[in-house]
Amino acid sequence: MAGASATLDTLLAAAAARLVAAGSPTARLDAEVLLCHVLGVERTWLYTWGDRQAEEAPARRFQALVARREAGEPVAYLTGEREFWGLALATAPSTLIPRPDTETLVAAALSLAAAPRGRLLDLGSGSGAIALAFASERPGWWVLGLELRPEAVALARHNAARHALANAEFRESDWFSALDAGTIAEGFELIVSNPPYIAADDPHLASGDVRFEPRSALVAGDEGLADLRHLVAAARDYLLPGGWLLLEHGFRQAAAVREALVAAGYAEVASRRDLGGHERISLGRHPA
Hints:
Blueprint (H helix, E strand, L loop, with lengths): L7 H14 L5 H13 L3 H7 L6 H15 L4 H5 L1 E4 L2 E4 L12 H9 L6 E6 L5 H9 L3 E7 L2 H13 L5 E5 L8 H6 L1 E6 L32 H10 L3 E10 L5 H10 L3 E7 L5 E7 L3
Parallel strand pairs: 3-4, 3-6, 4-5, 6-7
Antiparallel strand pairs: 1-2, 7-9, 8-9
């Protein structure tokens, strides 16, 4: 890579070339995001001031990050941040990286939350992305996120405080286990989850960002369907009559999830497509 006497544009071009060779499908974007992180600027600043000479210390930090990205580390872990639903969220290797396709789940939940007040439960909330996106749009709702890993709970609480979303709460829990009797009695209008749904032998686990993400948040038994089927079976005990269960799943799992929802007695079972046109979430309604 070019040295410290290079311009910012030269640094970016050299970094992008390295990342292309390493197989990154978003090489130029990766390089820009990493340089902006090092310099503490927005990407529009780079477009205006790319002919500036790079200072030695930032150039070295940038080169170190590019080398780590070249080895495959996700940009979101290198910068410690990822935007989701317009919210800048802190990220860490203890949680999944929020992805645009998961915004399909948020949009579907919001479409079913017409009342000014209600209660939403997010299971396996990780960084809090789904819960916080919903809470930001429905300030009159109480949003509870349950997450097994204590470090992820701490991260979700940090993200809630960062955006002053006082209507979102996060607790450590193995699925529903931490719910107290009072919370169970009150029930939820909406239950949402992006659970593990990748089969243990899926070849995608050996490529891309998922190589660095927590396996426990990715992989489930029964060809990736075990946790999905568990949630379908258990959620009815916590939903209010007429309430909805919404689940993210793999793009080839929609039919199996719909079948499980119908077998469990849910009504109005359907699936919705993500940005790529794949069936990404399935939902069903607790019979009133």
